[in-house]
């Protein structure tokens, strides 16, 4: 009776799916766009006849940028709305809060954002990048460019701290010098001291794991300081098209970002995605990596359900391994072992018009390795 | 000049005045008397518009001012010295006077000097924040401030409270002079019978929120009035 | 029986029936509201009675919550293991600060003592120097901000932004089991009831009157021979302990404690309920806390983006039209239809 | 100077020596010596701004002096905090009466009565009204208003309540700052009688400007001027002193009685 | 050592930002006793004004300063007239009230301008910087420091030299008495609020040079702004200036020696410690009355 996923959400000719993002609070800025992309995917799938002949009915909830609320709403979607699966979360904190809920209820969460790795829950599918698909390639790229001295800047929370641990292990192994490692509270807006520290250290590159609004302040204040992308490029892993707009392209132009997808990525699927997104939400809207990952998540789940022939959670999990779609970012495949997806890494250069130009990409999709087991320099990390 | 008729007033739901009526003819000096808590202050506050009457009418110079804002009443020529040494505590004595002058219609700087002539002790205190003055000093300031507006009707609520005897004499002299020479009309609340007796033309006795007796000054000697004022 | 008694009995009966009628999910929510109601009792004491607008109550809530969470984490990890978040934060050995929390008695004592002690020391420092009113409000708000920054920055010790989550047991109760959840609910309800009575007695006592006097004329109170700083400190400490207990219960009820619960905004939100219900009446504060949090759940289910409008608007409306909250409205309705108006004459 | 000449000088209850109070460079009290003996009823007068209230402020701990000492029953008061001084037995009223508006009249009095209770008993509820409170209600004529919040009291009623609070506080030394200001004549008389009664068992210092009141109830008077003692003596002596008349009473009506 | 010296202008830059965001509070909080939590949203309104005006003319940024003053000022006036005036003498209630208003304004901004940040492009003449003590001080910082100085001088003149300022202080100190003195208190209140809020608007324009422009903008600055006023002493302009400078340098150096998170915590500890010595802030207006 309280069988949450079991043929779950599927009553009559409908399948309910939960969409759980922050629609209010500080994270709303980012998460609303992901919700939009997920809703677009649901709509497209319905337009093509739905899944197993049933229409998808999204049930949207607000996580309110508050981790306990995410847990509460997840529980609500599972036990009250009895959805077949949930797409949701952005911050790692929200994911960690939801994880026990999904595990306890044996329900499914699709998490669409790049994160710090070191996690693999049987009830979560990770459609964003793990560290070896974003941070490690970015480091490889910098190393290839001959950058020997690095400065690390991040927001004070789990993702940046873990990312920096990885970076330091990498640096130690590859003879790269880390000149400084600085954290600022989320929502911090005063970067003059930090910029001064960077100017003082004279690194070859800055690795930026700042999140949210802080990026705006950081780049605006960096620009006046005389530190230029030519002398000291900043590589950001949490700045996508949406953020570039808010920072002001003129303030980030010439700096680098690392993702798996840009609006400019040239694949047929992406042309369709961007066009559909703009058609639905407005021509001035941009698409970004987490949005694309959220969009993919819906398709990946739908494919797994089709393959399983049911929405029942265990069946979907079993069916999911090896599911492949032609996503906007290219071919993406679910790795059945760790429930992450294989993704292509891309380094981008921010353009003056706010778009991001790909300057390097991995030869093909990189197999996800959330625990970095295949990298010997990362031995001490997990 | 001032006419109050049938005024009821209340603080929230607590009624304090019950159908109070009062006439203050131009050029007169009327004294309101009564035991503590009978509603004298409340009456003056109602006349000044701090309290809006729930019934009744107040006219000034024949004009109905029952609903007029306080500052407009002041502009119309009424001035009020509240009970209890009130001032703008963080403004200096000079600023206290100046700010009042700037709000008057006439804005004549000479008015400040005239007021200070009544209370010369204030001259040494001009730079001191009023909140630091002694009680009596503040009371002097309060009266001086009222005079600056050059009112035609002056309402005084126990003006001698806390003031040293020699200054009381001066206040008395000043009120008398303004009253006699400049024709200032005064509505005075005063507990000091002798002070009131020397100045007042007529009096009003209040009890429990009502006017229980009104008459000419001479009648104040009346034993009945004394009894009314007794507890 | 007075109206107060009748409504009290009705409330107790309703709370007792809840486990029988509500789904485990809804019951969990109700238990969460009860936790906030416990904080509300403390706020009503400190703010309504004592005039100390504490915008940092989240700090004490958090101290209690973290103390409890540390115990539960250690309990779960067993004697050898490390709490999960330490593993992925790269901590290899249990920090010294954590060690005593393996002991349930110590942890329970800490739930009360740590918030109490912090509040006591802070209160002593601040109130002795006669920092009050807006100054105190703003300082307490800054305290909340600083506390969150501190917690987030000590990831290996506190779990950082993530906080701690994934609790399965609570003193032998299975939190994943509906019966365990019912038991936790019952504990929360019981604690609320007891603290309500304690607060009620305190308000009615001479100390309570003294507190009101301190609120309205702190300096005058000194000349009656009392030390207002002490009166305030005691009250502030009591309210902090209540917040700490609420935080400790919140952990098994909701299953997570994180800095997101303790910052400026959540601390302010705790006040919303108290203001809406009526800060001067303890029962009003409780009712307000429950009602507002229930409204928050309801609206975020159906009307997510409007919640801020509603919350903000509700606040404004209550303050403008019912500054004494719902309790004030009830009071004046009762006065209008019950008692005679007072005519004050001497 | 009456006290000095007496054969067996009673013990000084309050001894102020070399007191100096400075506000932003202005000396409100300057080299003041002031002694009150046990059981005295002392009147303190002087021009507005002479420093009378400031003196009370210093004795009760509200203002810190720049120099000098205040000894009460042999104990130094300077440097002690206000509530300690109260607990030693010094009570005061304020020139502008301040009462707790939200508490009822009885509760105001009860608080003044309860400060000696240990914290534990403070945590209990008040039951009924103590004798001290009942008689203070009586004395202040506030029985009818006993259960009204003090906020509704008029100016004069507050003054009475404040005196009542001081009474139930039962201090050894009472400092009254213009207790009859704003009271009607008959009320002043009542206060005077009350004062007399209190003075028979307590030491009292009264600041007043009401000369009539002074003449009726004062025994010994201290006149302050510009922060120091100008004259001390009986009412008659003080009234005749030309300096006192000059700075305080005024020329014409110093003696006028109505 | 060089870096240590060049923290000097940085301390000054931080101080200027703190001062700008806190200056308006000198009126609304310091003078009127209204703990206006919506102050941050008035700053936000100023920032969005700059956003909306950009590109309208070549000097939009400069024009935005007075326009933002007017926009935020009018919002403040409206707030005073519709709500605050019922709350005089209840400072703690104003805190909650205006917090409610700030939530509504934030959501309104989200609905009007979208949740993501928007960008205000700095005018060309503010791009680049000048070398001071071996440190490059960006022109936008120089501009903010200059703007802060101008605003402080203006406020100082207003408070101490102009009749309007005197009138304002009178009304705040004793509303009833001010009316008895013939002052139209309602008008003074509204005007005071207009000034304080208008200054927030000006700060908002300046902040677009260095920070994000989004619906949450106000929340980033509001706590710091109040701390400046508290540390400085209520209603004390020189206190606010000194506190801003002190906190600016403290922040700058503490962050330089430790990190941003710890610096924030240490600053808070320093303020508590400071209030132990000076409980009412740096400058206090003494009074004799009992509270
Ligand atoms: N703010 C108030 N709220 C409620 N009741 C009040 C308020 N102020 C005064 N009262 C009541 O109104 C009555 C009249 O008070 P009012 O101040 O007018 O007396 P009064 O005649 O001026 O007395 P006094 O001679 O003592 O100054 C008193 O009984 C008092 O209790
Ligand atoms: N905190 C202060 N700062 C500056 N000056 C002060 C302060 N307190 C008192 N004064 C000044 O000290 C002098 C003495 O004041 P005090 O109040 O003691 O006078 P007083 O004798 O009680 O007068 P009154 O009879 O008018 O009440 C006055 O000139 C007053 O202005
Ligand atoms: N996973 C992140 N970016 O928090
Ligand atoms: Mg009166
Ligand atoms: Mg005095």
TrEMBL record, chain B:
- Which keywords, in A-to-Z order, does the entry hold? Amino-acid transport, ATP-binding, Nucleotide-binding, Transport
Q: Name one GO biological process term.
A: L-amino acid transport
- Note the SMART domains from the entry: AAA
Residue span(s) of domain ABC transporter = 2-231
Q: Check the record and name the SUPFAM superfamilies matching this protein.
A: P-loop containing nucleoside triphosphate hydrolases (SSF52540)
Against InterPro entries, the record matches this protein to: AAA+_ATPase, ABC_transporter-like_ATP-bd, ABC_transptr_urea_ATP-bd_UrtE, BCAA_Transport_ATP-bd_LivF, P-loop_NTPase
Query: Looking at the record's lineage, which domain of life comes first?
Result: Bacteria
Which Gene Ontology terms cover its molecular function?
Answer: ATP binding; ATP hydrolysis activity; branched-chain amino acid transmembrane transporter activity
In the record, the note on similarity to other proteins reads:
Belongs to the ABC transporter superfamily.
Return the protein name. Answer: Urea ABC transporter ATP-binding protein
Tell me which species this is from: Saccharothrix carnea
Automatic annotation (TrEMBL), chain C:
Q: Where are the transmembrane segments?
A: 31-48, 105-127, 134-153, 183-203, 230-258, 270-295, 307-327
Q: How does it sit in the membrane?
A: Multi-pass membrane protein
Q: Where located?
A: Cell membrane
Provide one Gene Ontology cellular component.
plasma membrane
Which InterPro entries does this one have? ABC_transp_permease (IPR001851), ABC_transptr_urea_perm_UrtC (IPR017778), LivM-like (IPR043428)
Q: Which UniProt keywords apply?
A: Cell membrane, Membrane, Transmembrane, Transmembrane helix
Q: Which Pfam families match?
A: BPD_transp_2
Instruction: Please give the coiled-coil regions recorded for this protein.
Output: none
Q: Which domain of life is it from?
A: Bacteria
Q: Which GO terms describe its molecular function?
A: branched-chain amino acid transmembrane transporter activity
Protein name stated in the entry: Urea ABC transporter membrane protein
UniProtKB/TrEMBL annotation, chain D:
> What GO molecular functions are on record for this protein?
ATP binding; ATP hydrolysis activity
Q: Identify the Pfam families for this entry.
A: ABC_tran, BCA_ABC_TP_C
GO CC, sorted alphabetically, is: plasma membrane
**Domain annotation ABC transporter: ranges:** 14-251
- Top-level taxon of the source organism: Bacteria
> Mind listing the UniProt keywords for this protein, alphabetically?
ATP-binding, Nucleotide-binding, Transport
Name recorded for this polypeptide: Urea ABC transporter ATP-binding protein
Q: What species is given as this protein's source?
A: Saccharothrix carnea
TrEMBL record, chain E:
Q: Where are the transmembrane segments?
A: 6-27, 34-53, 59-79, 142-159, 191-213, 225-250, 262-278
Q: Which GO terms describe its molecular function?
A: transmembrane transporter activity
State if Cell membrane is listed as a keyword. yes
- Establish whether keyword Transmembrane helix is in the entry: yes
Any one of the GO BP annotations = amino acid transport
Membrane topology listed for this record: Multi-pass membrane protein
Per UniProt, the keywords (alphabetical) are: Amino-acid transport, Cell membrane, Membrane, Transmembrane, Transmembrane helix, Transport
Q: Which GO terms describe its cellular component?
A: plasma membrane
List the InterPro entries.
Answer: ABC_transp_permease (IPR001851), ABC_UrtB_bac (IPR017779), BCAA_transport_permease (IPR052157)
The entry's localization annotation reads:
Cell membrane
Would you say which domain of life the source belongs to?
Bacteria
Q: Which CDD domains match?
A: TM_PBP1_LivH_like
The UniProt similarity line reads:
Belongs to the binding-protein-dependent transport system permease family. LivHM subfamily.
User: Under what name is this protein listed?
Assistant: Urea ABC transporter membrane protein
Q: Which organism is it from?
A: Saccharothrix carnea
């Amino acid at each position: 009776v309280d069988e949450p996923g079991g043929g779950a959400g599927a009553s009559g000719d409908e399948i309910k799916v939960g969409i759980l993002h922050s629609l209010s609070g500080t994270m709303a800025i980012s998460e609303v766009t992901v919700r939009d992309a997920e809703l677009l995917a649901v709509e497209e799938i319905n337009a093509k006849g739905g899944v197993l002949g049933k229409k998808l009915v999204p049930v949207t909830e607000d996580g309110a940028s508050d981790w306990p609320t995410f847990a509460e709403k997840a529980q609500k979607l599972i036990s009250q709305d009895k959805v077949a699966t949930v797409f949701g979360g952005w911050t790692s904190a929200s994911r960690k809060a939801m994880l026990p809920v999904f595990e306890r209820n044996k329900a499914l969460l699709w998490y669409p954002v790049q994160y710090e790795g070191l996690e693999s829950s049987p009830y979560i599918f990770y459609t964003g990048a793990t560290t070896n698909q974003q941070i490690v390639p970015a480091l490889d790229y910098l190393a290839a460019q001959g950058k020997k001295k690095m400065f690390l800047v991040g927001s004070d929370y789990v993702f940046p701290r873990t990312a920096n641990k990885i970076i330091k292990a990498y640096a130690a192994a590859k003879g790269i010098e880390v000149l400084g490692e600085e954290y600022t509270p989320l929502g911090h807006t005063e970067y003059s001291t930090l910029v001064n520290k960077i100017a003082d250290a004279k690194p070859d590159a800055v690795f930026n794991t700042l999140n949210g609004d802080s990026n705006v302040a950081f780049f605006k204040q960096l620009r006046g300081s005389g530190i230029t992308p030519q002398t000291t490029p900043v590589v950001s892993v949490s700045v996508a098209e949406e953020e570039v707009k808010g920072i002001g392209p003129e303030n980030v132009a010439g700096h680098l970002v690392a993702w798996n997808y840009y609006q400019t990525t040239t694949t047929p699927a992406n042309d369709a995605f961007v066009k559909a997104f703009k058609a639905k939400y407005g021509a001035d809207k941009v698409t970004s990596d987490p949005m694309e990952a959220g969009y993919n998540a819906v398709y990946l789940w739908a494919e797994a359900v089709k393959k399983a022939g049911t929405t029942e959670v265990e069946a979907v999990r079993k069916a999911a391994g090896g599911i492949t779609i032609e996503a906007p970012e290219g071919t993406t495949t679910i790795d059945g072992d760790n429930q992450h997806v294989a993704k292509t890494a891309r380094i981008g250069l921010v353009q003056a018009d706010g778009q991001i130009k790909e300057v390097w990409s991995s030869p093909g999709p990189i197999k996800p390795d959330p625990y970095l087991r295949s990298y010997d320099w990362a031995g001490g990390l997990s | 000049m001032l006419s109050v008729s049938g005024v009821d007033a209340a603080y929230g739901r607590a009624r304090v005045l019950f159908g109070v009526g009062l006439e203050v003819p131009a050029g007169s000096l009327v004294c309101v008397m009564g035991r503590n808590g009978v509603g004298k202050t409340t009456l003056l506050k109602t006349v000044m518009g701090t309290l809006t009457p729930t019934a009744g009418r107040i006219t000034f110079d024949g004009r109905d001012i029952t609903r007029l804002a306080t500052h407009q009443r002041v502009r119309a020529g009424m001035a009020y010295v509240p009970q209890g040494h009130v001032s703008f505590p963080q403004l200096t004595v000079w600023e206290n006077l100046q700010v009042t002058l700037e709000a008057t219609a006439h804005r004549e700087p000479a008015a400040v000097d005239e007021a200070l002539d009544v209370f010369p002790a204030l001259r040494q205190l001009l730079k001191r924040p009023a909140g630091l003055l002694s009680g009596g000093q503040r009371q002097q300031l309060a009266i001086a401030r009222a005079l600056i507006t050059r009112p035609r009707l002056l309402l005084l609520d126990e003006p001698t409270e806390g003031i040293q005897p020699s200054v009381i004499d001066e206040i008395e002299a000043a009120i008398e002079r303004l009253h006699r020479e400049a024709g200032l009309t005064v509505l005075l609340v005063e507990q000091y019978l002798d002070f009131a007796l020397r100045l007042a033309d007529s009096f009003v006795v209040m009890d429990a929120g009502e006017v229980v007796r009104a008459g000419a000054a001479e009648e104040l000697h009346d034993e009945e009035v004394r009894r009314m004022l007794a507890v | 029986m007075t109206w107060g008694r009748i409504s009290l009995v009705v409330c107790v009966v309703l709370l007792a029936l809840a486990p029988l009628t509500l789904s485990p999910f809804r019951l969990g929510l109700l238990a969460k509201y009860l936790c906030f109601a416990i904080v509300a009792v403390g706020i009503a004491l400190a703010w309504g009675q004592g005039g100390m607008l504490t915008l940092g109550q989240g700090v004490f809530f958090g101290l209690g919550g973290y103390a409890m969470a540390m115990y539960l984490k250690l309990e779960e990890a067993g004697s050898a293991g490390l709490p999960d978040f330490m593993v992925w934060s790269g901590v290899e050995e249990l920090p010294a600060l954590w060690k005593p929390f393996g002991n349930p008695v110590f942890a329970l004592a800490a739930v009360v003592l740590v918030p109490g002690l912090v509040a006591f020391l802070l209160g002593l420092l601040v109130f002795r120097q006669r920092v009050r009113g807006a100054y105190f409000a703003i300082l307490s708000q800054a305290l909340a901000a600083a506390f969150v920054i501190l917690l987030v920055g000590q990831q290996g010790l506190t779990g950082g932004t993530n906080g701690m989550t994934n609790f399965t047991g609570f003193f032998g109760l299975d939190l994943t089991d509906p019966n365990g959840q019912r038991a936790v609910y019952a504990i929360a309800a019981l604690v609320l009831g007891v603290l309500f009575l304690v607060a009620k007695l305190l308000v009615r006592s001479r100390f309570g009157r003294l507190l009101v006097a301190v609120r309205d004329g702190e300096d005058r109170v000194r000349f009656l021979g009392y030390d207002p700083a002490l009166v305030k400190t005691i009250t502030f400490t009591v309210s902090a302990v209540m917040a700490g207990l609420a935080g400790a219960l919140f952990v098994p009820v909701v299953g997570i404690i994180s800095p997101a619960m303790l910052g400026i905004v959540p601390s302010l939100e705790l006040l919303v309920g108290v203001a809406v219900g009526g800060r001067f009446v303890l029962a009003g504060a409780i009712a307000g806390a429950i009602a507002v949090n229930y409204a928050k759940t309801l609206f975020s289910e159906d009307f997510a983006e409007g919640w801020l409008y509603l919350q903000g608007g509700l606040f404004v409306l209550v303050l403008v039209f019912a500054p004494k909250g719902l309790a004030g409205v009830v009071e004046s309705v009762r006065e209008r239809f019950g008692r005679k108006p007072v005519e004050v004459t001497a | 100077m009456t006290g000095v000449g007496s054969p067996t000088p009673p013990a000084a209850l309050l001894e102020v020596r070399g007191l100096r109070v400075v506000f932003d460079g202005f000396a409100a009290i300057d080299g003041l010596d002031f002694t009150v003996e046990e059981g005295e009823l002392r009147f303190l007068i002087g021009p507005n701004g002479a420093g009378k209230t400031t003196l009370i402020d210093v004795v009760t701990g509200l203002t810190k002096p720049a120099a000098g000492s205040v000894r009460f029953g042999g104990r130094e008061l300077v440097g002690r905090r206000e509530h300690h001084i109260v607990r030693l037995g010094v009570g005061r009223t304020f020139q502008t009466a301040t009462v707790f508006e939200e508490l009822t009249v009885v509760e105001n009095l009860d608080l003044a009565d309860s400060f000696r209770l240990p914290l534990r008993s403070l945590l209990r509820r008040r039951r009924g009204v103590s004798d001290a409170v009942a008689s203070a209600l009586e004395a202040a004529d506030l029985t009818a208003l006993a259960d009204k919040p003090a906020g509704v009291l008029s100016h004069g009623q507050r003054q009475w309540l404040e005196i009542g609070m001081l009474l139930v506080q039962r201090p050894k030394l009472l400092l009254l700052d213009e207790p009859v200001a704003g009271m009607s004549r008959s009320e002043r008389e009542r206060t005077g009688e009350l004062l007399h009664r209190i003075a028979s068992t307590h030491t009292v210092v009264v600041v007043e400007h009401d000369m009539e009141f002074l003449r009726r109830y004062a025994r010994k008077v201290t006149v302050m001027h510009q922060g120091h003692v100008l004259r001390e003596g009986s009412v008659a002596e003080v009234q005749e002193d030309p300096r006192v008349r000059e700075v305080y009473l005024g020329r014409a009506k110093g003696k006028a009685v109505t | 050592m060089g870096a240590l010296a060049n923290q000097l202008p940085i301390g000054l830059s931080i101080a200027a930002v703190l001062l700008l965001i806190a200056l308006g509070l000198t009126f609304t909080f310091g003078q009127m006793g209204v703990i206006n939590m919506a102050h941050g949203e008035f700053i936000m309104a100023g920032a969005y004004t700059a956003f909306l005006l950009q590109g309208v003319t070549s000097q939009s940024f400069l024009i935005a300063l007075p326009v933002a003053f007017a926009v935020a000022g009018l919002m403040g006036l409206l707030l005073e007239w519709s709500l605050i005036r019922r709350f005089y003498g209840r400072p703690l209630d104003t805190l909650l009230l205006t917090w409610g208003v700030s939530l509504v304004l934030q959501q309104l901004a989200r609905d009007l301008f979208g949740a993501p940040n928007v960008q205000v492009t700095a005018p060309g003449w503010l791009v680049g910087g000048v070398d001071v003590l071996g440190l490059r001080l960006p022109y936008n910082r120089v501009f903010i420091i200059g703007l802060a100085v101008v605003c402080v001088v203006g406020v100082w003149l207003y408070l101490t030299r102009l009749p309007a300022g005197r009138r304002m202080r009178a009304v705040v100190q004793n509303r009833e008495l001010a009316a008895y003195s013939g002052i139209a208190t309602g008008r003074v209140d509204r005007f005071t609020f207009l000034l304080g809020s208008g200054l927030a608007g000006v700060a908002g324009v300046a902040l677009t040079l260095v920070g994000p422009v989004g619906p949450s903008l106000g929340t980033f600055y509001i706590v710091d702004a109040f701390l400046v006023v508290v540390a400085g002493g209520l209603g004390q302009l020189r206190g606010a200036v000194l506190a801003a400078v002190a906190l600016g340098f403290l922040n700058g150096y503490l962050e330089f020696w430790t990190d941003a998170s710890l610096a924030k915590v240490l600053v808070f500890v320093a303020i508590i410690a400071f209030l132990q010595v000076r409980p009412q802030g740096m400058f206090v207006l003494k009074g004799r009355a009992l509270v």
